[in-house]
Design goal:
9 strands; 21% helix; nine-stranded mixed beta sheet; alpha+beta; Acyl_CoA_acyltransferase
Length: 169
């Protein structure tokens, strides 16, 4: 039984989500990225910004899925994922990621991409994106660009990822 409760972000959560991302990373870039993505109607998808609550209701982690494209086909980008430093390595971010992936699956999404640590994301089912011929629009180590197919009945597009403008790539 997990001590964590996850739920979709609510309108009043933006400040706490910003604080989680600002605390989890060395610069405010990720926190600012979330704010920019939230303001982008083409990238933001209601229900795919998930937060983790501690038992006292405090928000302690966040995972965000936003719209990206692979060769013109819709996909999702998982970024950023964060937990407050005091709650890192305790499953709070993992709970948010699992909840976000399940929400995406329930919304009928079929492909999620992540650029991240090759020793972390495979636990959620991610594999090197190169397996499907999917590439980042910039140079990254093959093992760091990963994909998760949520709906194996849908064809998986190949090609270069086009991220939302807020990513700046």
């Amino acid at each position: 039984m997990s001590i964590w409760t996850t739920r979709p972000e609510r309108p009043g959560d933006a400040e706490a989500v910003h604080a989680i991302n600002a605390a989890a990373f060395p610069t405010p870039a990720e926190a600012d990225l979330v704010d920019a993505l939230r303001a982008d109607a083409e990238a933001w998808i209601d229900g795919l910004s998930l937060v983790t609550e501690a038992p006292d209701g405090t928000l302690v982690a966040h995972a965000l899925l936003t719209r990206c494209h692979v060769d013109g086909h819709p996909a999702l980008a998982l970024a950023p994922c964060a937990a407050l430093p005091a709650h890192q390595r305790r499953g709070a971010a993992s709970a948010a990621i699992r909840a976000a992936l399940e929400a995406a699956r329930q919304q009928g999404e079929s492909l999620v991409l992540v650029l991240g640590h090759a020793d972390y994301y495979p636990r959620f089912g991610f594999e090197p994106a190169s397996r499907w011929g999917i590439r980042a629009p910039f140079e990254v180590p093959d093992e760091a660009m990963m994909a998760l197919v949520l709906d194996s009945d849908q064809p998986v597009p190949s090609g270069v990822i086009r991220y939302a403008d807020a990513f700046g790539v």
